[in-house]
Design goal:
The protein is α+β, with helices and mostly antiparallel strands and 128 residues long. Helix content is 41%, strand content 18%. The chain has a three-stranded antiparallel beta sheet with strand order 2-1-3, covered by helices on one side. Strand 1 and strand 2 form a beta hairpin. Pfam families: AAA_13.
């Protein structure tokens, strides 16, 4: 059997929550799964915050695109699209666009209402 290809991360030392000095030596591709409380989120937080990470060959997190697919990523990048089941938007930018459109539509409605009031007032002054 071939040895596993090593990753750019030499080791991850967890010192968070219930894990003290727990060492993980990742390989090139890693997928962490387990029961609640097994440490998946702790590992993800370490990767995101670059805490407890020992990089190979003098490298650092700034030399790589470190990506974690965790709850924070899902909250920031996925949103339901209205009440349509199974339809959602992906990407932080795409999530913000409908929010901006909704806010602009509310502003437009407020301006239209103000215009209507002023038009009625102006018309009533013209008739007197």
């Amino acid at each position: 059997m071939k040895p596993k290809m090593q990753s750019a991360i030499e080791r991850i030392t967890l010192n968070d929550a219930t894990f003290t000095g727990e060492v993980i030596e990742p390989t090139f591709v890693n997928f962490f799964y387990g029961k609640n409380g097994a440490g998946k989120s702790t590992i993800a937080r370490s990767l995101c915050d670059n805490t407890g990470i020992e990089w190979k060959n003098g490298k650092s997190a700034s030399d790589y695109d470190v990506l974690t697919y965790n709850t924070e990523f899902i909250d920031a990048n996925f949103a339901n699209y209205g009440n349509l089941a199974g339809v959602f938007t992906v990407c932080e930018t795409n999530i913000e666009v409908p929010k901006k459109i909704e806010a602009l539509q509310a502003d437009k409605s407020a301006v239209a209402e103000e215009y209507k009031k002023k038009s009625v007032a102006a018309e009533s002054k013209q008739n007197t």
